[in-house]
# Entry
Amino acid sequence: MSPDCFVCDYKNHNVLHCAAHETIERINDSKDFAIFPRGKILFQSGNEAKGFFFIKSGLVRSFVQLSNGKEQTLRLIGPGDWIGFRDCISESVYHHSAVSVEDTHVCYLTGDLVSELVKDDVNFQKEVFRQMGKEWRETEEHVVSLGTKQVHEKLAEIIIVLDNAQGRRNHVELKVTRDVLATYIGTKTETLVRALSDLKARDFIAVEKNKIEIRNREALVSLSKIA
# Structure
């Protein structure tokens, strides 16, 4: 059953917060809802970008295929975020692929609907621009992180980011492999494993299989240089 936008958990801190009542009704009536099991592709690079996805629950990984056949992870997108939006708005093809990291619930909006709502609702238009700016800022910050931070700093950053996405419980469930995590922070898997061991030795974290317990959050935040 398609969820009701008027009672959505994210209504008060996303685009629906400022949208007119009529706009929300139109989204409610026109959106599609889907559940992607773990490992299911949402879209692939080169597909026509006719719409975008709003993540209601779960986790999605966006990535590009490199010339050597390997995948470079670009973003890990969690509840409350959009994916495929930039390519949809530019009326282009998707320039990256997206796959569900865990069972993921999404709402799907077409580009045609968004174009209509942007024309009809000024507040919706402002929120769309804000979302575009947020995505561009996150992309720039990730590029800067890859180019200027050491492995330990980048690892501390992604641990904090994942914990925030999972409810700030100081307990991170690693729902991606260490290989994928390594591609996200731009290093080799062996280097990532050594960095995890180093942070564990400092008692910043505890690691058990695919779970990371944050034992010293302040130290991780300081190390990560998150503003």
About this structure: DSSP finds eight helices and eleven strands in the chain.
